[in-house]
Amino acid sequence: MQLSRSHTLASPLFRKILLSAFVLILATVGSADFLMTRYTEQRELELVQQDLELVGQIYRERLSGLTAEQVEDWARKADGQSGARVTIIGTDGAVLAESRRERGSMENHAQRPEVRSALKGGTGVAKRHSASLGVDFLYVAEPARTGDGKGVVLRLAVPLARVNESLRAVRWRILRASLALALLALIAAYLYTRTLTRRIRNIQSYAEGLANERLSEEPELAEGGKDELGALAGSLRGMARQLRGMVELLRVESERREAILSSMKEGVLAVDEELRVTFCNEAFLRAAGAAAEAPDHKPLVQLARNPGFLSLLRQVLASGDTVRGKLPLAPASGRSFEVYAKPLDQGAHRGALAILHDITEVERLERVRKDFVANVSHELRTPLAAIRGYAETLLDGALEDAEHNRQFLEIIRSNAIRLTNIASDLLVLSAMEQDRAEQEPAEAVEVQSVVEAALRTVESAARVRSVALLIEEQPGLRVRGQRFRLEQALVNLMDNAVKFSRAGATVKVESGMTTEGMVAIRVSDEGIGIPSEDLPRIFERFYRVDKARSREAGGTGLGLSIVKHIAEAFGGTVRVESELGKGSAFTLTFPAA
Ligand code: ADP
């Protein structure tokens, strides 16, 4: 990421570092200037002082050759030569000679510090504002003697203005050099700080990218310095790698969970303490009859209104126990569910998890089974009652009734045949259910030969009823299943067609391929037909349109339900079209082998 100048300047860190550098440079330059100036000043004064001391030594010797009267003139001359003010003071402090003023106007100098030092025998030095001349002077005083052996103090002085002048010139040079250095330092500080800020910004934006979960989009952090920032960038890169790994792991994990849950037939629902949905799969949405949208934190009551289900979950949340129940989730759908609900620990919050198992089909099968048992007993009871009744009648004396005993025996026989038919049909049905459970191996079955075999079975019955049988076949059709089952289905359909036809009618068996590539076998007749309200039920067990007629014809009401079973075992379907009084057509459709 490139930072613009304004960005750099806007950075508080940049401003702070730069300001600190600025203050530091200023303090350094200021104190260097101060110390240099002081040093130079001292050096200057020392030089001037040394000069004065040197001049003082020469003048002391000169003085030793002069009388008191000559001293004053000499002082003026000496001043003119050296440029230093010359004052000669007596041991009592009285000014004996002064090069720049009338000595009479001078006050007693005994108390001047430099004079006091000289009077004590040493060299006195002082820097002071001269009360006599009104300017700053550097004074150097030394004890001396005049020609007549009188002890005096020789004082030389130069105005400090001269020293100050040279000092100013030096100081200005120092200041210029310092300022130039400060400017250079500042530029260096600016450039360094800018680089530093940029590096920090890069790391910052990278770290923000990580925090914002833009892991995969974030370009790799280019920072590679060998300092602490470089090390920080290295740790961040390592952390990003780990994060990416973790995110990928979580993604795979959640996709796997999603796949498992969405492929589950069972509805799965998780709710929080306030019965808001935290998760649910498609099966649950389907069961609740809700639109397939993400129901994130939607109140459950908006998805499933069943009060029983809501109170079951409330019970789980309140008690913390697992609860089971059976209920219709969306009563309109007519489906019922077995619900298994248990408490769910969702971190800091409690919740509940419910698994819904659709038991509509199980319940239906249970009902069918019960109905079936009831139907079977009912179907058996009638012929059994007849057999028993007529047998008792015969035993009670009818046996001797030559007129009727044969008729009674005929009735007993026909009912026994019915019982046998029912028993054998039931056996077929149960055998088929067993086959399906055991997944009997399927073979490729030649349709043409099966149709012909079925035809031979019903031929005699057709002849008895004067019904013509007609076959229209497409050769080479094959389906996958068990041969004898297909034959059984065709026999049942053809037998019905013959049974419900009038004399002189024709029963047609056609086979061919449908446009969808399926094998279709159609058995049609010109018989009595089936009322449209009965059509949906004729494949049910024991269902007969006209019970008396069916019974008379030896029917059990199980034939079509066997056909339907067989069609399904072949992976196919059976369909009926019929018009009352005109005839019926049953079509079996199977996948081709
Ligand atoms: P059934 O042993 O009584 O023939 P099915 O299960 O084979 O039992 O048939 C059920 C009922 O469907 C029959 O009783 C009859 O009322 C009706 N049915 C079946 N096939 C035909 C057909 N081809 N024409 C008219 N009615 C039929």
Question: How are the SSEs ordered, and which strands pair?
Answer:
Blueprint: H1 5-10, H2 12-63, H3 71-82, E1 85-90, E2 95-98, H4 113-119, E3 124-129, E4 136-145, E5 151-159, H5 160-211, H6 228-263, E6 267-272, E7 277-280, H7 282-288, H8 307-319, E8 323-327, E9 337-346, E10 349-358, H9 360-395, H10 405-438, E11 443-446, H11 447-464, E12 468-472, E13 478-481, H12 483-499, E14 506-513, E15 518-524, H13 547-552, H14 559-569, E16 573-579, E17 583-591
Parallel strand pairs: 12-14
Antiparallel strand pairs: 1-2, 1-5, 3-4, 4-5, 6-7, 6-10, 8-9, 9-10, 11-13, 14-15, 15-17, 16-17
Residues 492, 496-497, 500, 525, 527-530, 538, 543-546, 550, 555-561, 584 line the site of adenosine-5'-diphosphate.
